[in-house]
Amino acid sequence: MYVISNGKIVSEEGILSGFDLLISGNRIEQIVRAGEQEYPADAERIDAAGGYISPGFIDLHSDYIEHMAAPRPTSLMDFQLSLRETEKQLISHGITTMFHSLSLYKGSEYAYKPIREPQNVRKFIDLIDQTHHTKHLVRHRFHARFEIDNLEEIDNLKSYIAEKKVHLISFMDHTPGQGQYRDLELYRNTIKGYGDMTDEEIETMIDERQSAEKLTIEGIREIARMAQEISISIASHDDDSLEKIDLVQGFGATISEFPITLEIAKKAKAAGMYTIAGAPNVMLGGSHSGNLSAAEAIQHECIDILCSDYYPAAMLHAIFELNKRCGLDLADMFKLVTINPAKAVGLDDEIGSIREGKKADLLIIEKIDPDFPVITSVFVDGELVQKTNYRV
Q: What is the value of pTM for the model shown?
C-alpha cells in the first residue's frame, strides 16, 4: 500500500492540487483531499515533491526494440537481453505499456535490418508473449506492422492472430510515389543516405517496388476480420488521400497512423478515427519526411495520440514542449500519451487515466530545471518499479 502526496494529479478533467492518492494492491483505491483522512500505519508514503502524478504512458507505435536488437546492420544481440534492457529504458521515459511495432517487411534494398527476417520476428513475438508469465517491468504488447507486398508472410500473420499474440495490426504500403514516400525526389535522396547506389540502380529499384504484387483489398479484409473477431484494433498507415480514409474504414481500420497532410488528418478525425503522430516530430519541429507537422495538427485538434516512433524520450518532452511553445493545455497534452491511446486499443477500462478502481500505472514527474521534466518514480500494476533521486 502506498500513499502519494504533495503532487499535482493529472486527471482526465484537469490537474488537481491538494489531493493524496492511495494505492492498494494493483489498483488506485482512493483520491482524497490531503489531511482529511488517516491512512493505515503500514502504508508507505511517497512525497511527489510538488511534481506531477500522471498515468503511465502508452506507446502504440515504436520500433525501438529493433535498434536495441540490431544496433548495427551486421550486429544481432541476444533477443532476451535486448527486451530486458529495452524495458529498463522505457520505464525511465515513463512508458509503462509498450506496443512493440515489429515489421513484417518483404525486404529492403537500401536499409537491411536482420531483425526483420521472419525467423527473428517470430522469436521476438514469442518472447513478448512469454513476458506475460515471467518477471517483467512494463506491459509488453505486439503491434504487427504488415507491409502489403509481403505475400510470403500472410500465413504467419494469420497464425500470430490465431495464437492471440497480436494486440494491434497496421497495414502498410511503402511503395515509392505514394504514402510517406509520395515525393520521389525526397525518396531518392533518402536511399542515397543509406548506401552507395547509382542513379540507375535507384530507378530500377523504384520500378520494381512500384510493379510488385500486393495483397488485395479482399485479402486485407480477411485478415482484418480475423483480428476484429478477437478485439484487435486495426490501423492504416501513412494515409495520403481523402479517398484512402474511406477505403481503410471499409476494412475496419479505426486508427490512422501518420496521416500525411493536415487535410487528411482532419478527414480521419471527422470520420471518427483515432489519429497518431510521432512525438519526435514535435521535438524536431516537423516531419523528417517533409510531411505533416504534428504540433500544427494538434493545434487544429486533429491528432489524438503521440507515439515514440523511434525515440522513447520524446513522449515526455513533447507534451511539455506543446504546453510551453504552443500554449496548449497541459492536462490535454497528457491525454495524447495516456487515455487516448488506451481508448484506441480498448484498454481504457483498466489503464490510461487516474481513477479509483483502475490499475495503478503511475508516474511522478519532476522538473530539475524550469524546462526539463524527468521521471522520478514509476508504478506498474501498483508496484514501485523505479525510483530516481537527482542530487545537487
A: 0.90
**What is 2-54+353-387's CATH topology?**
Urease, subunit C; domain 1 (2.30.40)
Instruction: Give the model confidence (pLDDT) of 309-362 as tens digits.
Output: 999 999 999 999 999 999 999 999 999 999 999 999 999 999 999 999 999 999
- The fold of the 57-173+214-344 domain, in CATH, is TIM Barrel (3.20.20)
Q: Decide: 334 and 306 in contact? Cβ < 8 Å.
A: no
CB atoms within 10 A of CB 366: 18
Under a CB-based contact definition with an 8 Å cutoff, are residues 354 and 53 in contact?
Answer: yes
Q: Delimit the domains of the chain by residue range.
A: 2-54+353-387, 57-173+214-344
Distance CA 46, CA 17 (A): 16
Closest to 232 in 3D by CA, of 306, 336, 113, 142: 142
| Sequence letter at residue 53 | I
